[in-house]
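Quick one: structure tokens for this chain, please?
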Amino acid sequence: MARSDEISARRTYDKIAERYHNARANKVLFFNEFLEMPATLSLLPKLKGKKVLDIGCGSGIYATKLKQKGARVCGVDISPRMISIAKQEVSGVDFKVGSVYKLPYLNKSFDIAVAPLVIDYVTDIDRALYEVNRVLRDNGSLIFSLPNPVTQSTERLHKGRVAETSRVFHDYFKEGMRKQLWNYDRKSLGRKRVSVSTMHITYQTLIQSILRNGFVIEDYIDVYPISAGKKSDPKAYALTSKVPWFCAFRVRKTNDR
């Protein structure tokens, strides 16, 4: 039986699949194109000839880049509509509908796994990391990103053009699902904002789960926007060059779980 977090994520992405893919394909989503994705990709080792699992693959944006780097790629996502688009858009990749809690692959099938902006939809991080450990080969790597847990506990003190980087804290230590409104680029995703439920966890919970599930941390990035983002969206660039919006990890499997 599907869990509530899976049902929520599936409904959200089935609903916005076409608009989301068009926005990503046209590179208009600042926080993805100029912030999170460059940082996550920078943590990848050499991929030529490696078998890579793209977890939360969506419409195949990451899978395309992984394939271009010489990887043999499989993609899995909870959204059937996203997988349908991925199959239409990307050739040579084995895409499947599936859950991070029960990945549809055999033990020790992959050299590397990537999970960009996936962990923040997961309520049981231990179970998710256990599954990733299971499908990774010995010394395999997992590269993942998520919203910065500290910044995620704040909101803007002022709205509009004034003091965008002034923020007020809520309860950092209170973990759980939190609703937010995504205000996408209007030309690509329409004027209606999308309500999304994501999971807030502390750094302590995340790091302890990483270590408890057979991984060690090899690298970490406080994500900073690339310079091209300044021209694309000066306002977002100004904010994210002062506030750490995302973080990215590379962890390595050290033992089976």
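Residues 185-189 have pLDDT under 50 and may be disordered.
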